[in-house]
Every structure is written in C-alpha cells, then in structure tokens.
Amino acid sequence: MKYYPIFLDIKDKDCLVVGGGSVGARKAVTLEKCGANVTIISDRFSAECDRLKSSRICLEKKEYEKKDAKGMFLVFAATNNADLNRQIKADALKLNILCNVADAPDKSDFILPSIVDRGDLMVAVSTSGSSPAMAKKIRQALECHFGPEYAKLLQLMGNIRKKLLSSGHAPDDHKQVFHTLIGKGILELIESNDEININAILWDVLGKEYTYQDLVSSRSDE
Ligand SMILES: C[C@@]1(CC(=O)O)c2cc3[nH]c(cc4nc(cc5[nH]c(cc(n2)[C@H]1CCC(=O)O)[C@@](C)(CC(=O)O)[C@@H]5CCC(=O)O)C(CC(=O)O)=C4CCC(=O)O)c(CCC(=O)O)c3CC(=O)O
Ligand SMILES: NC(=O)C1=CN([C@@H]2O[C@H](COP(=O)(O)OP(=O)(O)OC[C@H]3O[C@@H](n4cnc5c(N)ncnc54)[C@H](O)[C@@H]3O)[C@@H](O)[C@H]2O)C=CC1
C-alpha cells in the first residue's frame, strides 16, 4: 500500500490553506465540515472562496509568509505557484507540521480522498493520486448505492450500541444482536419509513425499551 488510510479528528484544530482559488476553496470546505478552524491566506480570492467566509473560515488577504504556518495542525499548499507550494511544504516540515501540496503528490505528507458523506458512514476513495477524475466517478457511483437511508441506519445502530454497552460489555452476545438486526432488513424498512415493522424487530431482538423514534432523535456521539 502506498498510503496509510486514517480518519483524523480535526475538530477545533487550526488548519491553514494557502491559495484562495477553487482548489483551496474545496480543501477549506471539507476542513470546515469536520469542525476545524480554517484560515485561508491568499493575495486574491476567487468569488467562490470569498463566499466561504464564516465563523469557522477566516480569509486573510496577503502574501504568504513563513510565520503563517506556525501553530497549525495541518497545512495545505494550494497556490498556483509551484515553487511557493514547495516552500510552504519546507516551512511546514521545519515546524513538524503535516502538509498537503496540491500540485505535487510526491512532495505531500498526505493526499485527500473523494468522500461519500452519509452521517456516520463515510466512504473514502483514493486512487493514490493516479486519477482524481476516477476517484470522483467512483464516489458518484457509490453515492447511488449508499443513499441517505444509511445515515439514519447508523444513527439507529450507534444509539442502540451506546445504550447496550452502557449496561455492560458482553461482546459475544452483542455481536449476535448487531448481526441479527442488520440481517433482518432494517435498512429497507428505514428506506420505506416503516416504523411499525422497525419497532417490531427492535422489540423482538432487544426488548420494549428500544423504540425507533427515541433512538433516532439523538446523535450517537452526544
Ligand atoms: C494527489 C491529490 C492531492 C490532493 O489534493 O490531496 C490530487 C492532485 C491533483 N488533482 C488534480 C486534478 C483534479 N482533481 C480533481 C478532484 C479532486 N482531487 C482530489 C484529490 C487529489 N487530487 C489527491 C489524489 C486523490 C486520488 O486520486 O486518490 C479530490 C478527490 C479530493 C479533494 O480535493 O478534496 C477531488 C475530488 C472531489 C470529488 O469527489 O468531487 C479533479 C476532478 C474535477 O475537477 O472534476 C481534477 C481534474 C481531473 C484529473 O486530473 O483527474 C491535479 C492537477 C493535474 C493537472 O495539472 O492536470 C493534481 C496534481 C497532480 O496530480 O499532480
Ligand atoms: N489537488 C487538487 O485537487 C488539484 C490541484 N490543482 C493544482 O492546485 C493549484 C491551485 O489551483 P487553483 O485553485 O485552480 O488555482 P488558482 O489560480 O485559482 O488559485 C491559486 C491562488 O493562489 C494565490 N497565490 C499565489 N501566490 C500567492 C502568494 N505568494 N501568497 C498567497 N497567495 C498566493 C493566488 O492569488 C490564487 O488565489 C494549481 O497548482 C493546480 O495545478 C488543480 C486541480 C486540482
């Protein structure tokens, strides 16, 4: 394997994107969705980038300077200047910060995947840099297969898991329960909004204190 796949928790971490064009904008949007505090530094901003200004995305209109990278958790070099992108990478290295270089995968510490985002289900597709266009096409095909019902299913499964585990750990019994639930076709029932039959399964497998409406009204990580 060329790259080590990892799901990184970047909530409330400071991340720097240098370059306010369409590539910088795309990287900033994903960072923001994951709860990071994003600074985009650029000597000019595309209209697309300008619209991103928010409580979590701050735009600084200026030339990049080495000190800008200080204290950042991640750095993204996304300018249209290849030499500058390499300089940003070198600065980040000196500061021990991982850096993505938009025009030079071989110089990057990490590359970004194409993402299917269905709540707690995240499918990340990488072609190891061989063909971003193909990564995007595969992502679009997967989006048709993994529809929005998967977000609901995982909210349900996450909350059942949390409730069950809060009453004690019994890995062998629990394994049986989870596989039984999935095997009973709950996904299809969620898709057709058939609450009556979902509850019938929940009560049969887990007991009356497990009700669909209660279990999908809160997030599993709350
Ligand atoms: C190595 C990597 C580094 C990184 O950015 O982390 C990288 C590098 C480069 N991409 C380039 C071009 C394009 N990138 C896209 C789109 C995406 N690029 C993304 C990731 C990555 N791109 C990493 C590898 C991912 C992998 O393959 O596994 C995605 C998945 C995620 C994201 O950006 O968030 C996002 C899709 C989001 C979605 O799902 O929609 C499209 C498609 C389009 O625009 O329609 C094109 C035009 C078509 C094409 O080139 O294939 C060029 C310029 C080449 C040139 O000069 O011609 C380079 C530089 C180079 O290769 O040297
Ligand atoms: N990784 C990826 O997914 C992709 C990467 N690329 C590469 O990414 C790079 C950026 O692409 P785009 O966003 O389309 O380019 P762009 O030209 O739209 O944006 C680049 C931005 O960098 C800024 N910039 C240049 N010098 C600067 C400096 N000294 N200080 C601060 N900001 C500076 C410019 O003002 C501009 O806003 C290109 O090198 C391109 O080849 C292109 C497509 C996809």
UniProtKB/TrEMBL annotation:
Domain Siroheme synthase central: 118-143
GO terms of molecular function: ferrochelatase activity; precorrin-2 dehydrogenase activity
Entry keyword set: NAD, Oxidoreductase, Porphyrin biosynthesis
Top-level taxon in the UniProt lineage: Bacteria
Catalyzed reactions per annotation: precorrin-2 + NAD(+) = sirohydrochlorin + NADH + 2 H(+)
Oxidoreductase listed as a keyword: yes
Coiled-coil spans in chain: none
Keyword Oxidoreductase in record: yes
NCBIfam families: cysG_Nterm
Pathway info: Porphyrin-containing compound metabolism; siroheme biosynthesis; sirohydrochlorin from precorrin-2: step 1/1
Species of the source: Desulfobacula phenolica
EC number(s) on file: 1.3.1.76
Gene Ontology BP term (one): siroheme biosynthetic process
Protein name: precorrin-2 dehydrogenase
